[in-house]
Amino acid sequence: MQNNRGCLFKYFRDSNLKLYNSKIKTGAYLDLETYFPEHSILENNWKEIQKEILGVMDSGGVLPKFHEVDDGQEYISDNDGLSWSLLNLMLYGVWYKKNAGLCPKTTSLLKNMKGVVGAYFSVLAPGKHIPPHKGPYKGIIRYQLALKVPKNGECKIFVGGIPYFWTEGKSVLFDDAYTHEAVNNTTEHRVVLLLDVKRKIPGFFMRQYDCFIFSLIQFMIILNGTFSKSEMK
Q1: What is the pTM of this model?
Q2: DSSP assignment, residue 4?
Q3: E strands, 17-105, where?
Q4: At residue 144, what are phi and psi to the nearest 5 degrees?
Q5: Four-point Cα dihedral 45, 64, 85, 89, nearest 10
Q6: How far apart are CA 132 and CA 5, in angstroms?
Q7: Phi and psi torsions of 17, nearest 5°
Q8: Domains of the chain by start residue, with CATH
Q9: What SS3 class is residue 111?
């Protein structure tokens, strides 16, 4: 997985996931009502959220590609010459003020959701394939609200080998630590609101460890200059 990463990163990722997986047992897909009941608020406002991101996309600005934001992600973002673009609103608890200002309604909804620690709009170009990969950190679970789904052709995500087909205005929640991939074998863009939701960690030791890991990831993001790379061009 993520062959472009160095040996130290791979060792950290694998040993870290091994520890989390020994303490946390969940399936590939998670129940929305149990783990993120606020999904209904976003679904009730999905048309307004859709209007904001489509307006940004139509404004003439260029959304950065994932590997331009995080230069360790070429393997899954720059693998086929087609774009996987992001508009980052918040990353590990830190807001991108300029980007968030482009989507005020979405931002206002998310600021009332304490469990949300990351927020992005994810745009897959026609024909884009995100190859199998898994997140290095099990302290978050990943939410997606479909905002624009191609009407014809194959457009879906696999998590743990199980396919899910996006439906506009509907939500899905999954464990990012499972191997997952996405395909957009259509002639249209696919757009989702993607959130990182903080997982409730069991046990005192694991909660302390998780706080350390979360802070470490925040530091690495700042060190990498991710915030300056994430602004629209």
Answers
A1: 0.90
A2: T
A3: 84-91, 94-95
A4: -135, 135
A5: -30
A6: 15
A7: -65, -35
A8: 28-229 (2.60.120.330)
A9: coil
Condensed to tens digits (0 to 9), the pLDDT of residues 196-232 reads 999 999 999 999 999 999 999 888 887 776 655 556 6
Q: 3-state DSSP call for residue 135?
A: coil
Answer yes or no: are the C-beta atoms of 180 and 171 closer than 8 Å: no
How deeply is 58 buried, as exposed, middle or buried, from its count of CB atoms within 10 A (0-12, 13-18, 19+)? exposed
Residue 120 corresponds to which tokens in the numbers above? Answer: 């992005």
Length of the chain: 233
Give me 227's structure tokens: 């915030």
Distance in angstroms (rounded) separating the CA atoms of residues 118 and 95: 9
Q: What are the tokens at 146?
A: 């479909």
Q: Model confidence over 93-152: pLDDT tens digits?
A: 999 999 999 999 999 999 999 999 999 999 999 999 999 998 889 999 999 999 999 999
